[in-house]
């Protein structure tokens, strides 16, 4: 037999397409050619495979070897095809005999000594493999990740071990992963923050409805500490959400299976580029907003980000996904994140403080705050002023509620939302809000005119009001709930003009 066919996978966004690895040995001068739109790493597979075969005790055929990675128009990258290419050569040269490889898929990079090295994007490949009913053979360091998908998974350390398994000499057992897919956040506790009772109240509302929030206050007021406590207030990921998150992280690099259950908390530096935030590259990979899927994206020192970088947040905040267009393809990554941002009110940070302020209230503060566009601010549900902590509260003995106590109230609010509408309040459609708005129509019309609210801002406040009602266990949204929600709506530009 001079021809062999094996199956592998190539990631395309958060999905993975089947790749047919065909190997043909023909007479003629020795040559080794790989075709199929592979990048440099794929072409370099020739040298890795040759050394791995020889060092594993096999013969490297001195013939014309052609390897086709089909479909030919699908871009392929990395060393994930090393293992099926090496096995294809062994099968085509008759060194393994006649073996039916249809029940298997193979993914793995080869070291020069024949050992298998882990590759990224294993979980999307395993999920796709699971739907076909095939068994996936992978490097041992990828095995836990692949087994999470529920597919039959075999872990191997060496090329020789895979060959012995296929030949029936030394069967390899199926691999099982016992890593949890959900768990409670193990971070700081809310009780560690002294004072800021009002800010903690708004933080609870944000957690209960998944709302975005902007914290504005002087340096040292506790904005970053408040944001870092948010993951401890929300319920853990359910297994399906954890699998989605793990699949996204898998595209970047192999990940410790013990981290799969954690709700993401991403805090990129303000020097991050638009590509770092959204994702991209020749072979597009997810950016920070996708890595924060089902979690929290915290942007500290918000006006210090480049304005063009911040503007890319507008579409994902509305749609929950981000599209990346390239000449050959267009990919969509999920990005249903909760945005928490923090900023100082002015460059010196002490706007309005008679002792510490720089004194340039009008010029510097307005110029600083104008770095944030109105459309972006309009998409943030909660705008909160965080004052400096009073010394008596900072040095006192009184502690606030612990995170686990607040989390129980948040969990109950989530339960009510899922029973009523099968989604969080932040995802409510405008037509779902109409009955609530009609019942307070005349009053809301005056509020809109007085505050200069857009239709988007009104609907976002209505979602917040629905969350406040859920926290109080109320079936109906009353005017007090709307009044509190609207009190968190006045944005920076409106404050400057008032």
UniProtKB/TrEMBL annotation:
Protein name (database record): Magnesium chelatase-related protein, putative
Origin organism lineage: Bacteria, Pseudomonadati, Pseudomonadota, Gammaproteobacteria, Oceanospirillales
MCM C-terminal AAA(+) ATPase domain span: 287-382
Keyword Nucleotide-binding: yes
Domain of life: Bacteria
GO MF terms held by the record: ATP binding; DNA binding
Claim: Cell membrane is one of the keywords in the record: no
Organism: Alcanivorax borkumensis (strain ATCC 700651 / DSM 11573 / NCIMB 13689 / SK2)
Pfam families cross-referenced by the UniProt entry: ChlI (PF13541), Mg_chelatase (PF01078), Mg_chelatase_C (PF13335)
Assigned keywords, A-Z: ATP-binding, Nucleotide-binding
Family listed: Belongs to the Mg-chelatase subunits D/I family. ComM subfamily.
């Amino acid at each position: 037999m001079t021809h062999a066919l094996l199956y592998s996978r190539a990631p395309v966004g958060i999905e993975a397409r089947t790749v047919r690895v065909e190997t043909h040995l023909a007479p003629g001068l020795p040559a080794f050619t790989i075709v199929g739109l592979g990048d440099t790493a794929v072409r370099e597979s020739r040298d890795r495979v040759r050394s791995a075969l020889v060092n594993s005790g096999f013969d490297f055929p001195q013939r014309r070897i052609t390897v086709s990675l089909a479909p030919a128009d699908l871009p392929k990258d990395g060393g994930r095809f090393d293992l099926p290419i090496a096995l294809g050569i062994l099968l085509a040269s008759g060194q393994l005999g006649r073996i039916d490889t249809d029940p298997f898929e193979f993914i793995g990079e080869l070291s020069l000594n024949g050992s298998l090295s882990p590759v990224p994007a294993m979980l999307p490949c395993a999920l796709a493999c699971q739907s076909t009913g095939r068994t996936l053979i992978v490097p041992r360091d990828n095995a836990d990740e692949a087994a999470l998908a529920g597919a039959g998974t075999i872990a191997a350390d060496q090329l020789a071990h895979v060959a012995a398994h296929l030949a029936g000499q030394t069967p390899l057992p199926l691999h099982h992963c016992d890593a949890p897919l959900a768990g409670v956040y193990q971070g700081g506790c809310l009780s560690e923050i002294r004072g800021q009772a009002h800010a903690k109240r708004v933080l609870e509302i944000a957690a209960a409805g998944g709302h975005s929030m902007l914290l504005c206050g002087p340096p040292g007021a506790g904005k970053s500490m408040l944001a870092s406590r948010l993951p401890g207030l929300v319920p853990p990921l359910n297994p399906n959400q954890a699998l989605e998150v793990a699949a996204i992280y898998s595209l970047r690099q192999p990940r410790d299976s013990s981290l799969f259950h954690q709700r993401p908390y991403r805090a990129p530096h303000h020097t991050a580029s638009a590509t770092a935030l959204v994702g991209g590259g020749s072979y597009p990979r997810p950016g920070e907003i996708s890595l924060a899927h089902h979690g929290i994206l915290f942007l500290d020192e918000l006006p210090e980000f480049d304005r063009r970088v911040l503007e890319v947040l507008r579409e994902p905040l509305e749609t929950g996904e981000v599209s990346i267009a390239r000449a050959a393809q267009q990919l969509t990554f999920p990005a249903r994140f909760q945005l928490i941002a923090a900023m100082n009110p002015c460059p010196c940070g002490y706007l309005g403080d008679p002792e510490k302020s720089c004194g340039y209230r009008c010029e510097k503060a307005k110029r600083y705050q104008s770095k944030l566009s109105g459309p972006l601010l309009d998409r943030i549900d909660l705008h909160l002023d965080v004052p400096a902590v009073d010394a008596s509260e900072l040095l006192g003995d009184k502690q606030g509620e612990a995170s686990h106590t607040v989390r129980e109230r948040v969990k109950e609010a989530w339960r009510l939302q899922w029973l009523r509408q099968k989604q969080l309040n932040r995802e409510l459609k405008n037509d779902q809000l109409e009955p609530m708005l009609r019942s307070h129509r005349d009053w809301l019309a005056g509020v809109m005119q007085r505050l200069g609210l857009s239709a988007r801002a009104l609907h976002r406040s209505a979602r917040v009001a629905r969350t406040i009602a859920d926290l109080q266990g109320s079936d109906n949204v009353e005017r007090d709930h709307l009044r509190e929600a609207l009190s968190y709506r006045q944005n920076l530009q409106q404050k400057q003009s008032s």
